[in-house]
């Protein structure tokens, strides 16, 4: 069994991270009735005897749970969010040594986050991450959570990403990035995002982009279902998707619904590695199956069902609906329509009471409607995990490597160019030690070449590519 | 003589566990004591508290599956796995053949060899080694291939039967075709025979013949276990009456693998039906054998929906003409066949129709191409059952399909960086493709 370490950077990163830990605790509590510290728990938590000073672990699998500590490093250049965590119900889950904070924040400036704070805190960050990593028996991956539009998450977050690659080159780096919507209130968010994109393309193994606007729309849909009053559409209130009820924190804060969705994404990605199933999927299989070319590692995700209906026995039709929804553009976590773009690869991670025949039936049914690239017509990766998420009987996470990310990147580039042409706000960045004008040019060209790679693949769509002639051998 | 089974990867371990379940149940249900004893000697040994311990070594790169099946086996109360005969690591192979073969294989070579050696030492005499794995993933396929190669070096005089599960055509794993090509091309060089089950085929058996509504992997694995059990359980292989064969794997290989270029074996089994229907059915040997023969001829693994229009082409034509005609007619030419009959009145069964020279390639005399084994003991709940292990063109199309898909993907170099990262180069890929194109050519131009 392997362990993963979560590194949450910036306000958004820490808020999402917080929700993740809350939901993870709830999920494990639901499954682990006997209070035994088992393999599944050890993937994200240490078991610590609080009476022993220094908190050295009684990390023995099979022992009773004493105090769970998250395998995490929390980084923020402002104290507000982290302080709130330390005063809230999750305070016991984190060791004070796992927190790295400063007071003044990055002022929504990628350069400040990346260069100023990066160099200032480099050693401390390495030290803390190393400490957490050493407490792992077999560290398989880092989960980095951050936003792209601000200064800390974006700048310092990508600096940390580079660090992780240098110091732990064999550990997989899975990044959840929250992209700003067009109506974002941070004016310089396009600069921050594009500068961060270059780092993601160069240093991440896999990126799960998430757009705030999509999350808002999904949360609204759920709320609408809750209030629409149809008799059969009562939403189970303990569903982890929409509420934190049953979790450790009681009060629901703004953005909680949206952050819950992202936290669920992380839970579901790791479920097959943590729990048993008839067809397991480990974290290293994600990148192996979904990343055909090293730079094209942006995976579009969708989670279904977003709500459970009150009916208890769900007939097959409903199960099939779950699969159909996973490909609809309303369920994607970025604003994109994968059905009308080209699939390079697709993974379906199913949890709960679903069998291989249900999976196959739905793949057969949906395959004709989805355009796949010619050399990967059967490009499906599947996994079945027997443990369903709390409040649901089954769930599906679809991860797709699809060219529908291209329009998102193109739009980002346009917003960037609009500002850059006028040299607007540039001086804030160039004042920072370590930042040069060339950085902007390089980041822009990195993004452009990424877009170009996707375009070339797109051009192949719909074209009937003849099969490559086979090797001929002597008869 | 005993068989040691090495279960590799998730699939290998899950299938292996079902197989031992079938073998244990069949040996304890057998009405003939000698049959039960022979079967138990072959696949089990006595544990410290008189329970049956499977002669098996379990290998996987991550621990969840192994611990699950050890628990499941122990729950049966009738047999179990040895507490010490398993090897696992913490992190899997990530569906990456190169990781399984180049990294995990060499790192854990000694530990795995030790376990196999200990198990072999428990045998009075070793009949052969059975490996069970899939070819789509990373551990079963990559590490499984490496381990087979090592064991081959360690036991150069032993016989190796590799059971390989072929994945569903539509993805379980996206890089499954790469992994499959690498596995088959390597195995072909040092395996004695490769016995294949295709998930798609077994799935159809579950849905159409066994009428299972929600098919799980456990159902699929039970069918595979039933087929394997019907091949490996004791039989009389010669006219030496009253003596069960002491060398099942050796005799299987000498019946079926006459030429090192032709090693792919598939299994046809009849009857296959749900236990509820079984209670109301009765069979005759002529009926069973007639269907089984046509299943072979038309290459159908199920007794329903057989294409009866396909027939044996007339003999007496030139080799090339035959090949062309056969392909057009959808006829499945055999190199060698082994018919295994189990159950009531087996002595009255007449297998003459399988000796038709038209079924076989012309360059092997029929007496060498066809063999029959039998046993009077009913197998696994079926009063009469017939199994055909066949070295024929049955796997030609599936192999060609896999190689074609892999080649197309290779042309765009997709995913290749994942393999080169661990030590498999583009050259290695090309070598593998060449080996398999040769196999395809050999089977096409019988």
From TrEMBL, chain B:
The keyword Transmembrane helix does not apply. It is found in: Cell projection, Cilium; Cytoplasm, Cytoskeleton, Microtubule organizing center, Centrosome, Centriole; Nucleus. It comes from the Eukaryota. One of its GO terms (molecular function) is GTP binding. It holds the Pfam family Tubulin. Residues 40-239 form the Tubulin/FtsZ GTPase domain. SMART domains: Tubulin (SM00864). GO terms for cellular component: centriole; cilium; microtubule; nucleus. Keywords: Cell projection, Cilium biogenesis/degradation, Cytoplasm, Cytoskeleton, GTP-binding, Microtubule, Nucleotide-binding, Nucleus. PROSITE patterns: TUBULIN (PS00227). One of its GO terms (biological process) is microtubule-based process. The keyword RNA-binding does not apply. CDD domains: delta_zeta_tubulin-like. SUPFAM superfamilies: Tubulin C-terminal domain-like, Tubulin nucleotide-binding domain-like. Its main location: other. Acts as a positive regulator of hedgehog signaling and regulates ciliary function. PANTHER family: TUBULIN. Belongs to the tubulin family. This is Tubulin delta chain. It comes from Denticeps clupeoides (denticle herring).
């Amino acid at each position: 069994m392997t362990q993963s370490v979560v590194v949450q950077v910036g306000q958004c990163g820490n808020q999402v991270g917080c929700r993740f830990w809350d939901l993870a605790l709830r999920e494990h509590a639901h499954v682990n009735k006997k209070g035994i510290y088992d393999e599944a728990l050890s993937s994200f938590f240490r078991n610590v005897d609080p009476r022993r000073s220094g908190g050295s672990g009684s990390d023995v699998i099979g022992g009773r749970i004493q105090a769970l500590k998250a395998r995490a490093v929390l980084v923020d250049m402002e104290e507000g969010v982290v302080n709130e965590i330390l005063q809230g119900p999750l305070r016991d889950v984190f060791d004070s040594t796992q927190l790295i904070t400063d007071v003044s924040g990055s002022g929504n400036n990628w350069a400040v986050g990346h260069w100023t704070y990066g160099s200032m805190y480099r050693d401390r960050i390495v030290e803390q991450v190393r400490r957490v990593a050493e407490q792992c028996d077999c560290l398989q991956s880092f989960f980095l959570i951050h936003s792209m539009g601000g200064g800390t998450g974006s700048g310092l977050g990508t600096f940390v990403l580079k660090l992780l690659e240098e110091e732990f080159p064999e550990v997989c780096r899975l990044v959840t990035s929250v992209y700003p919507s067009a109506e974002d209130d941070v004016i310089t968010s396009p600069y921050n995002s594009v500068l961060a994109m270059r780092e993601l393309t160069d240093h991440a193994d896999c990126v799960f982009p998430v757009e705030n606007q999509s999350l808002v729309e999904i949360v609204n849909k759920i709320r609408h279902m809750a209030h629409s009053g149809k008799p059969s559409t009562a939403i189970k209130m303990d569903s982890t998707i929409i509420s934190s009820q049953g979790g450790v924190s009681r009060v629901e804060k703004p953005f909680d619904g949206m952050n819950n969705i992202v936290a669920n994404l992380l839970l579901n990605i790791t479920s097959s590695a943590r729990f048993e199933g008839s067809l397991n999927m480990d974290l290293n299989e994600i990148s192996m199956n979904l990343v055909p070319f090293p730079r094209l590692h942006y995976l579009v995700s969708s989670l279904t069902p977003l709500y459970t209906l009150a009916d208890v026995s769900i007939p097959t039709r409903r199960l099939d609906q779950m699969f159909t929804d996973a490909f609809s553009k309303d369920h994607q976590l970025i604003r994109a329509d994968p059905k009308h773009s080209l699939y390079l690869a697709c993974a379906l991670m199913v949890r709960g009471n679903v069998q291989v025949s249900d999976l196959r039936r739905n793949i057969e049914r949906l395959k004709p409607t989805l355009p796949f690239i010619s050399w990967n017509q059967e490009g499906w990766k599947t996994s079945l995990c027997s443990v369903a998420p709390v409040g649901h009987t089954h769930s599906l996470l679809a991860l797709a490597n699809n060219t529908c990310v291209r329009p998102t990147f193109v739009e980002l580039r346009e917003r960037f160019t609009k500002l850059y042409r006028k040299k607007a706000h540039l001086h804030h960045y160039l004042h920072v030690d370590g930042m040069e004008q060339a950085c902007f040019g390089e980041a822009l060209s990195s993004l452009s070449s990424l877009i170009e790679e996707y375009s070339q693949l797109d051009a192949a769509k719909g074209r009937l590519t003849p099969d490559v002639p086979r090797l001929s051998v002597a008869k | 003589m005993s068989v040691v089974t090495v279960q590799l990867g998730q699939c290998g371990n899950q299938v292996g566990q079902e197989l031992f379940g079938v073998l244990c149940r069949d040996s304890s249900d057998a009405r003939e004591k000698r049959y039960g004893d022979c079967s138990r000697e072959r696949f089990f040994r006595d544990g410290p508290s008189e329970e049956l311990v499977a002669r098996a070594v379990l290998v996987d790169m991550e621990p969840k599956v192994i611990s699950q099946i050890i628990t499941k086996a122990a729950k049966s109360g009738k047999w179990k796995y040895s507490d010490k005969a398993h090897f696992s690591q913490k992190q899997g192979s990530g569906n990456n053949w190169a990781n399984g073969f180049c990294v995990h294989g060499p790192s854990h070579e000694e530990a795995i060899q030790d376990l196999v050696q200990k198990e072999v030492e428990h045998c009075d005499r070793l009949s052969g080694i059975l490996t069970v794995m899939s070819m789509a993933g990373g551990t079963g396929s990559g590490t499984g291939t490496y381990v087979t190669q090592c064991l081959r070096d360690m036991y150069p005089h032993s016989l190796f039967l590799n059971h390989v599960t072929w994945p569903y055509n539509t993805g379980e794993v996206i890089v499954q075709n790469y992994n499959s090509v690498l596995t088959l091309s390597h195995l072909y060089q040092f395996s004695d025979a490769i016995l294949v089950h295709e998930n798609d085929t077994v799935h159809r058996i579950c849905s159409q013949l066994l009428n299972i509504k929600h098919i799980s992997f456990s159902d699929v694995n039970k069918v595979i276990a039933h087929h394997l059990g019907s091949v490996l359980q004791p039989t009389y292989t010669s006219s030496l009456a009253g003596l069960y064969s002491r060398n099942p794997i050796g005799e299987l290989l000498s019946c079926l693998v006459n030429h090192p270029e032709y090693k792919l074996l598939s299994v046809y089994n009849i009857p296959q039906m749900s236990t509820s229907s079984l209670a109301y059915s009765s069979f005759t040997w002529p009926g069973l054998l007639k269907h089984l023969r046509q299943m072979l001829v038309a290459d159908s693994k199920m007794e329903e929906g057989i294409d009866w229009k396909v027939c044996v082409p007339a003999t007496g034509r030139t080799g090339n003409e035959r090949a062309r005609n056969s392909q057009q007619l959808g006829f499945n030419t055999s190199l060698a066949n082994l018919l295994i009959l189990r159950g009531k009145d087996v002595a009255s069964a007449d297998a003459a129709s399988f000796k038709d020279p038209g079924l076989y390639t012309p360059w092997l005399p029929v007496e060498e191409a066809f063999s029959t084994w039998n046993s009077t003991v009913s197998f696994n709940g079926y009063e009469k059952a017939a199994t055909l292990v066949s070295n024929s063109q049955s796997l030609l199309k599936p192999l060609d399909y896999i190689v074609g898909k892999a080649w197309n993907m290779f042309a765009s170099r997709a995913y290749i960086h994942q393999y080169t990262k661990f030590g498999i180069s583009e050259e290695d890929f090309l070598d593998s493709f060449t080996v398999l194109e040769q196999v395809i050519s050999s089977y096409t131009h019988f």
